[in-house]
Design brief:
The complex is a heterodimer of chains A (about 160) and B (about 100). Chain A is about 25% helix and about 35% strand. With about 160 residues, chain A is of the alpha+beta class. Chain A has a domain of about 90 residues: SoxY domain (Immunoglobulin-like, Sandwich), CATH 2.60.40.2470. Chain B is an all-beta fold and about 100 residues long. Chain B has one domain: Immunoglobulin-like, CATH 2.60.40. Helix content of chain B is about 0%, strand content about 50%. In chain B, strand 6 and strand 7 form a beta hairpin. The N and C termini of chain B lie far apart (about 30 Å). The chains are: A alpha+beta (about 160), B mainly beta (about 100). Strand 7 of chain A pairs antiparallel with strand 5 of chain B.
Chain lengths: ~160, ~100
């Protein structure tokens, strides 16, 4: 019990120091990103937890995000998905699969002329909504969803 | 060290289309082998793409990306001849960096 508390306190201290380092400009965000994998979001076992981990607890629906994915995927191990955000000033996109054991698949930040677009291939365990979350430069989050039916799951290998 | 990535970068109008194929098993940590033992998770966690020396895309990935991941990005304002450098790091600390040049 006490040992756990020690660990938690230590953890909190380390995070605080990191935030201070970023504020002081010692660490550039790019270096931090590479070093700090967002474990809370990627390890979340449900959609709500994953969104919370991303900092997007209640994103607004927005049809400006276009998800291109097959209506029926024959092989859940490889589902091609294209996501395009037409929302102005989109700076990052995250792609989630609602019913996967770990819903968050990936999160990408765009800069220096990169368009807020992404093509990738996902694993899907079963028929589920594929959701894309866009973050704008002013810190707002938007979400769009598309259902993909899966005939053979991709998580059992 | 993993196999090299395959990178294709081509200008379409004023936008560079970049596609990359990475060679990686992307084990989820949920699969069992023939003996019934869980295969430990082994997957790419971070990806960075830079064009002409400037970072354009930085991503974090989880286990739900397919084996031998393919990603596509589009970058506005890039030029023919710009160097595209892509780098990934996985959860075991393996990493790989490859580069290509944008073609017309």
């Amino acid at each position: 019990m006490d040992a756990l508390r020690r660990t938690l306190l230590k953890g909190a201290g380390a995070t605080g120091a990191l935030a201070a380092a970023i504020a002081a400009g010692v660490l550039k965000p790019s270096q931090v990103l590479a070093a700090e994998w967002n474990r809370a979001a990627f390890d979340a076992k449900d959609l709500g937890g994953a969104l919370k981990g991303l900092g997007a607890a209640s994103p607004a629906d927005n049809s400006g995000i276009v998800i291109k994915a097959p209506d029926i995927a024959e092989n859940g191990a490889v589902v091609p998905v294209d996501v395009v955000s037409n929302i102005p000033n989109t700076i990052s996109l995250a792609v989630l699969v609602d019913k996967n054991p770990l819903p968050l698949t990936s999160a990408f930040d765009f800069a220096n002329g990169a368009l807020p677009e992404l093509a990738l291939r996902l694993k899907m365990g079963q028929t589920s909504l594929v959701e894309a979350v866009a973050k704008t430069a002013d810190g707002k989050y938007f979400i769009a969803k598309k259902e993909v039916k899966v005939t053979v799951g991709g998580c059992g290998g | 060290m993993a196999d090299p990535m395959k990178i294709r970068a081509q200008m379409k109008g004023d936008t560079a289309e970049i596609r990359v194929l990475m060679s990686h098993p992307m084990e989820t940590g949920q699969r069992k082998d023939n003996a019934g033992n869980t295969v430990p998770a082994h997957f790419i966690q971070a990806i960075t793409v830079s064009v002409g020396g400037k970072p354009v895309v930085q991503g974090q990935t989880g286990t739900a990306i397919s084996r031998n991941p393919v990603f596509g990005f589009r970058v506005k304002g890039a030029k023919v001849g710009d160097k595209v450098v892509i780098n990934w790091v996985d959860n075991k600390g393996d990493k790989r960096t490859d580069e290509a040049t944008i073609s017309a």
